[in-house]
Amino acid sequence: MLSKNEVMMRRIRALTVRLFSMFAGRSANAELDAEIESHVVLDTDAGIRAGLDPREARRQALIHLGGAEQARQAHRERRTLPALESAIRDTRYSLRSLLKHPAATAIAILSIGLGIGANTTIFSMVSRFVLRPAPVGNPSTLLALHTWAKGDPCCNSFSLPLYNDVRSQAKSFSDVAAYYELIPASIARSGAPERVWGQGVTSNFFNVLQLPMVLGRGFTSGEESQPSIVLGGRMWQSRFSSDPDIVGKTVLLSGRSFTVVGVAPPSFHGVDQILDTQFWVPLGVTAGLVPNLPPQGARDYHWLAVVARMQPQATRTAVAAELSTLASRFEKNYPATDKDNSFVFEQAGSLPPRERNTVLIFLAALSVVVLLVLAIACANVANLLFAQAAGRQREMAVRLALGATRGRLRRQLLAESVLLAIGGGTLGTLLSLWATRGLSALHLPAPVPLNVGLDVDWRVLVYSFALSVVCGLMLGMAPAWAASRPRLANALRGEDALARGGKRFSLRNLLVVGQIAMSLVLLCVTGLFLRSLQSASAIDIGFRPQRLLVLSVDPRINGYTAQRTAEFLAQLRERAAALPGVRSAVVTDVPPLNGGNRSDGFSVVGHAKEDNSFTNAELYMVTPGYFETLGIPRVAGHDFGSETATSPRTAIVNQAFADRLFHGANPIGQHVNGGDVDYEIIGVCGNVKSRTVGEDTRAVLYRSLNQTIANDPSLMGYTLVLQTAGAPQTLAESIRRQVYALDPTMAIFNEETMEEHVRTAFFLPRLAATLFGTFGAIGLVLAAVGLYGVMSYSVSRRTREIGIRMALGAKPGSVERLILHQGFVLTLIAIALGWPAAWMLARLASSFLYGIQPHDALTFAMVPPILAVIAMAACYIPARRAASVDPMQALRTE
Fold it and tell me: What angle do CA 212, 217, 219 make, to 5 degrees?
């Protein structure tokens, strides 16, 4: 009895022999013919010796053999793979058939390529942000842990004591690591000083991640508080010229010396794949790089992200049960800080919990749109295949008459449609490569570094190929079925069985109706986003961006004290204001429309809590002249003056702050409290958009920079804003020279004009309008081409009928109206079907619209007539051709 391995090896050897035999070619066939002939000769000789006539003896020998051709076929089936051999023959024949009609083939490949290119581009986003695991060892067992307080939105970070407790008590994990997500720093070795961002990590961080290093190693347990650094691969390549001897050398990070112990892979920029971090230092030295870190032993300050590596035998169910037990234990032991707290976890590298739903809804909306584009493209190609099938009825009938089966014909036609789809998929992948490069170059409006680069990875390629094959089968199935079932007698006489009279509504018409209906959905969604962009561009942002230049510095990371930082910024303002062409120079912590900002809760001093005098407000630090420089109107009171760090705290609030806390009363001279600090309100200014252009008006409190810089330094650095007499970008080099004159090691970042900054803030409405507009235009063009093709085909098939009508007295105008009426009926049916679908799908876009509702009346009223006009334009050329038919020539048409 053969073992399983022996049976498997025999099967592999047999398969190998069959594969080689397929490509043996004429030599193998010649050997087979010679062997068959030898058997026939032997049997013939035996018949002759038995007294038969030589001719009869040979006939009996062939009968005994069972037929030479049958013997050859049986032998080929035993020594080769018939199914594969048949597929190869079908592919070769299909290629020849497609090359006979290069124009039709090119149109089909282009149509499918546009549809698959759109889908591949959007799927590259899905792969990048949803499917791709963190670039670490064995990513499926690396979990990101979060805390969740009952009643609060998910999720929160860990305190250092809580992290230590989980690490020491959780048995489902082989180890647990923590990291501080963002550390701003400056680094200089080759070239000008550069602003970079990194992370502070526990010494076991790289061991928990199981991350292989390009050079060196991660941190050891003895380096928790040592000035060691692991460089990111991209920083090592760009700033240190891929120095192979970098390990052991010293680099200056924010003016401090750090010893390089390792270089991470270029593909790794942190567990959170959206953040773009470029270095890692031990958590123990983070306090020297980041101001105002919470006390190490404070259990009520949550500031650490945590990842954990599961034990090999652990399951996620066991992990959830153990974390629930630990949460109950900590609530009992630390009721003041851990009451109603629980733990949640997910695979490390997933989208941040707070942003996940927004991103998924946006990707879902885009996926629906590109699938509609692909459906329109496939309907277009299916119509083209129907037209070709009608022209091949005689060929199919002849092949059936000669013995071909209908299944064999269908396989042949499906092979052609799959080849078309694969060609379109190849084109679509190339288009996607171009599109992803363009999308990767976009700059997101965020105050922290983000990595949103897209590429076409193996998942995208597999998806593109699978989608191509599925599309090829789907769009080719109906034409293949119709073409393989001709009426033999009619087809052999040249009649078109697919265009028989009496059919008011053919499958081709149904496909066109579907195309136009889906195009209507696309155009409605596109119209919503274009209207949203128009509405966003009309939003009053509250300040004047023209002729303003902004650039940022961060003296704190160069070791400056609060007093030195204030002196540096004052000197920089004086030097900048003295430059020719500069009208004014002011400093703030961050400019408006920055994507994120600090905030705090404020109440009126002396008011009872039941008065409901409380509001959350955005916090800014500014110098005198800020409001005049940015063109923010002052409503009441006066500007900041000569405030100092020791003088009573003063503040200027915007109109929204005053309305929410004082309800129409005069706020000047009133005192408010936020963050345990009292402020006297000395002025009221106009409202501005603080974070995004689409936000509801936020309450804002402006503080004096000189008063605040010591107790609440800005993590984002400080921004110099210059008002210029001419083009602001012409002064950029002069301002840089002034910065380096004060400190040649100071990194300059975020240098741009305010108009560029504002354009970046319109990123989301511009991106949505661009993507949906592009896909909508593609869908509209494909639908118009599809309608034109159907009407042209209808005219060509009705040439004889039109000739008879005209011979009986019909006028060209009536014939033209006949064809236009046919197209108009199809369009009306499509609009009736597509309009309700567009109305329902519009809700998907509601989260991303600015200033309009998802059921915007103008959009839904304007799109159907616009689509009808374009459809009638597509029908007009076939209608004109029908009206110009010569009756005598048409009557001679078969």
Answer: 115
Q: Characterise 384 by phi-psi region: left (phi > 0), alpha (psi -120 to 50), beta (else).
A: alpha
- Helix or strand (DSSP H, E) at 451: none
User: Residue 249 above 90 pLDDT?
Assistant: yes
Would you put residue 675 in left (φ > 0), alpha (ψ -120 to 50) or beta?
left
Dist CA 795 CA 890 (whole Å): 11
What one-letter code names the amino acid at 425? G
Amino acid (1-letter code) at residue 188: A
pLDDT reading at 495 higher than 60:
no
Per-residue pLDDT, 501: 44
pLDDT of 294 strictly over 50: yes
Q: What is the pLDDT of residue 561?
A: 87
Which candidate, 449, 712, 700, places its Cα nearest to that of 589? 712
Residues 319/325/326/331 CA torsion (nearest 10 deg): 150
Q: Which whole number is the average pLDDT over 191-196? A: 82
SS3 label, residue 607: coil
Instruction: Find the angle CA(404)-CA(405)-CA(408) to the nearest 5 degrees.
Output: 90
The one-character DSSP state at 141 is: G
Enter the DSSP assignment of 353.
H
Task: Tell me the pLDDT tens digit for each residue of 398-420.
Answer: 777 777 777 777 888 888 888 99
User: Looking at residue 158, what is its pLDDT?
Assistant: 93
Residue 705 has pLDDT above 90, yes or no: yes
Tokens of 414: 């499906």
Q: Higher-confidence residue: 361 or 62?
A: 361
The whole-angstrom separation of Cα 37 and Cα 272 is 73
Distance separating alpha carbons of residues 787 and 789, to the nearest angstrom: 5
Name which residue leads in pLDDT, 273 or 468.
468
Q: For 752-778, what is the mean pLDDT?
A: 87
Neighbouring residues of 390: CB distance < 8 A, sequence distance ≥ 6: 483, 496, 497, 498, 499, 797
Secondary structure of residue 446 in the 3-state scheme: coil
Query: Cα–Cα distance between 607 and 257 in angstroms, integer?
Result: 52
Mode of pairing for the β-strands spanning 194-201 and 279-282: parallel
- Residues present in the chain in total: 894
Pick from 548, 573, 568: nearest CA to 746: 568
What pLDDT is attached to residue 28? 58
